Amino acid sequence: MLDHIVLATPDVQASVAEIEAAIGLRPELGGHFPGRGVYNHLLALQDDAYLEIIGPDPDQANHEGTLPFGMDDFGDKGVHVPHWCCKAGAEINSRVAAAKEAGYDIGEVQPLGRVLADGTRLDWRLTRTIWPPLLGGLMPFLIDWGDARHPSSTAVKGASLVSWHGEHPDLDEVRRGHEALGVELELREGSTPALVAVLEGPKGQITLR
Question: CB within 8 A of 97, min separation 6: which ones?
Answer without folding.
Answer: none
